[in-house]
Design a protein that fits this description.
This protein is α+β, with helices and mostly antiparallel strands and 265 residues long. Helix content is 15%, strand content 33%. The strands form four sheets. Strands 1, 2, 9, 10, 11, 12, 13 and 15 form an eight-stranded mixed beta sheet that branches. A three-stranded antiparallel beta sheet has the order 5-6-7, covered by helices on one side. It has a two-stranded antiparallel sheet with strand order 3-14. A hairpin with a 5-residue loop joins strand 5 and strand 6. Helix 2 crosses helix 3.
Length: 265
């Protein structure tokens, strides 16, 4: 199967807004360079993220393409400021501490970021057709809103909704696929957290979002989906990792995505 990469997004500060790129470098652990490079923690070492802190949704962040500067705007009171990264991490932490009402630590991992799935730290991926299908499930939603709710790194032009399910095999195997010259492995359909249930800019919860999603997802499963990998149907996008056959490199919007083979995990 051959598709084409249509969108690349990184999220330089975990849980904040993303920045769209034309090309991205693949790090040695399989992650996209600068994706989730920084995370926010409180004084107890706990994450400050969308899962635990709904106020995150009231922060707007704009990054330059090198993720070397961030402009922040509080939707709560209009406060805004700009910071260099990582040079002014202390100033950023102080500004965020005022916003969240607690001490904030800005932590950096330049070599691999802070992925949710440490076993599959590569980019999450979804098809353009899937985003369109999910948009139709919720009256009033837009494609961009659905993208913001599910926060995939890579989007490709496919041939049917949920064609990315072809990148997931049974539990004993993985699917190798290439984007340009880089080879990845698809591992699992990503189990979703509470973040997609909230409006990306307000944090307002959509009633029964996860239940409605699971009902639609189960009802529209394509024949190529490996159902044994779905202990529940609140799953969307595919988790990936870098194949041992690849040393990384760069991927670009417009690159071909080719499904290569299924091999033992």
């Amino acid at each position: 199967m051959t598709y084409r990469l249509s969108r690349i997004v990184i999220y330089p500060i975990k849980s904040l807004d993303g920045v769209e790129l034309e090309a991205a470098t693949i790090l040695s652990n399989g992650a996209l360079a600068n994706d989730r490079r920084f995370c926010l923690r409180n004084a107890r070492g706990e994450w400050i993220n969308g899962k635990a802190t709904a106020a995150v949704h009231l922060l707007r962040a704009k990054f330059d393409r090198q993720a070397s500067r961030v402009h922040l705007l509080s939707e709560r009171d209009g406060r805004q400021a700009e910071f260099a990264l990582p040079a002014d991490a202390e100033g950023l932490a102080a500004w965020l501490g005022e916003f969240f009402g607690e001490k904030v630590l800005v932590v950096e991992n330049l070599r691999g970021g802070f992925p949710d799935d440490t076993d599959s730290p590569g980019p999450t991926i979804v098809s353009r057709e899937t985003i369109g299908e999910v948009t139709r499930w919720y009256p009033g939603f837009t494609v961009d809103e659905v993208r913001c709710r599910f926060r995939a790194n890579l989007e490709f032009a496919g041939d049917a909704p949920f064609c990315e399910d072809r990148l997931v095999a049974d539990r004993s195997r993985v699917v190798r696929f290439s984007i340009g010259a880089v080879i990845f492995e698809g591992t699992t359909a990503c189990a979703r957290c509470p973040v997609p249930t909230r409006h990306p800019q307000t944090g307002v919860i959509y009633p029964r979002f996860a239940k409605l999603f699971a009902e639609h997802r189960e009802a529209t499963l394509p024949p190529w989906t490996i159902t044994e990998r779905f202990d529940h149907y609140y799953r969307l996008t595919v988790n990936t990792r870098l194949s041992p056959l690849s040393q990384g490199g760069e991927i670009h919007v417009g690159d071909q995505l080719r499904i290569l083979e299924t091999v033992p995990a």
